[in-house]
Amino acid sequence: MSDDKREEKVRSIKLSGFGGYDCLVVQEESCPRPETGEVTVKVKACGMNFADLYTRQGLYTFDGRKPPFVMGMECAGIVKEVGEGVQEFKVGDRVVCWSFHYGMWSEVSKIPATTCHHIPDSMSFEEAVAMPVSYVTAYLVLFDFGNLRRGQSVLVQAAAGGLGWAVTQLCKTVEDVVIFGTASAFKHEIIRENGITHAIDYHSTDFVQEVQSHAPTGVDIIVDSLSGSDFIRSQKVLKHMGRLIHVGISNMIGGEKRSLLRALKVWWQMKNVSLLNLTKNNHAVCGFNMGTLTENNPTRVKEVMAHLIQLYEEGKIKPRIDSVWSFDEVVKATKKMVNRENIGKLVLIPVKEKTDGDPTPQTVDSAVLNPED
C-alpha cells in the first residue's frame, strides 16, 4: 500500500484488563470515522474522574463492559469530521463531549452528536472537560434532587475534588447558603476561597460532631461521594425534610488495586438503609448516576450543560484545573487521584509541550499547597 493510502493511526489510553496501574496502556488505534448521527473530535483535553478508578479496578463499569477498551468519559476538542444526518455541528467547531460507554481518552474520539455541546472561545479545553461529569452532576444533585433554596445549608463530602469544587461554586449562586466541606487540612485555605463556610479535616475531626456544633438541627442537603459508613453516619446531621444524595463510592478505593474485603464492607453498609428510619426522620435518600441519566433523559443533560456554560460566561462558575498530564503520564496522574492529592480537576492531554529541563506536569497551585506532590 502506498504511503498516501496508509491507514491513519491515533494514540489512545486503553484498559488492558481490570487491575493495577499496569493495566493502563498507551497504544495506537485506527483513527475512527463517524457513522450516522456521530462526529469525530480531534481531542485537546480529557477529563479524569474518580469513576475512572472504579473502572480500572473492576468495581463498576457503566454498561458491564469488559476490557480491553479505550478509557475516558469526557473530552473537549475540535470537530474533525461529521457523520450523515448531523446538522448541529460542522468541521472546526469547538466542543465538549461525554460518553459513558468510554472511548474519550484518545487523540481522536467518535461520539454521538447528541452528547456534544458547543463551547465558547472564552472557555479553555481544560475547563470544558470539567463540565460534563463534575458540574452537570453537581447541578442536578443540588437543584433537581436537592431543590436548594436561599438560606439553606449543604454538606459536601470531598470538597476539594472536581465534584466538590463544582458543588461549592453552584451553592454560591444561591443567596445565604451555608456550606460545610470535608477535605485534608492542607486544602482548607483554598476551599474556603472557593466558598466553603466551614472546612472540616476528616483525618482529625469527626465530621458529624463538627457539623452538629455549628448546625444542631442539621443541614438541608448532603452530597455524598464516599458511601459506606460515612454515608450511614451522615444521616445524623440531616434535618427533617432533608435530602441526602449519593453520587459515588470513593471509600471503596484504598490503593492501587481492588480490595474485595473493603468493597464488600462498603456494599454491606450501604445495603442496610432503614426505610423505617427514613420515614421517622422525614429524610429523603436519592441515588444519582450520570451515565444512566444520559441514556434515559439526554435532553435534560443538554439543558443543564447549556445553563452551566451561561453561568461560566457570566463569571459565576469557573473550574479549577489541578494539573495537566500527557497520555504518557497517565499512571502518575492516576496515583495523584488515588492518594487524594488533587484540588480540582485532573486533565489529560495527548501530548504536552515541555520547557527544556522541566519534566514536571503543568500544575495550578497544588505544588505549593502540598510539598509532597
TrEMBL record:
Pfam families for the chain: ADH_N, ADH_zinc_N_2
UniProt signal peptide: none
Renumbered residue ranges of the record's region Disordered: 354-373
Domain Enoyl reductase (ER) residue range list: 19-348
Domain of life: Eukaryota
Keywords on record: Oxidoreductase
Cell cycle among keywords: no
PANTHER family documented for this protein: SYNAPTIC VESICLE MEMBRANE PROTEIN VAT-1 HOMOLOG, SYNAPTIC VESICLE MEMBRANE PROTEIN VAT-1 HOMOLOG-LIKE
Family classification: Belongs to the zinc-containing alcohol dehydrogenase family. Quinone oxidoreductase subfamily.
The protein's name in its UniProt record: Synaptic vesicle membrane protein VAT-1 homolog
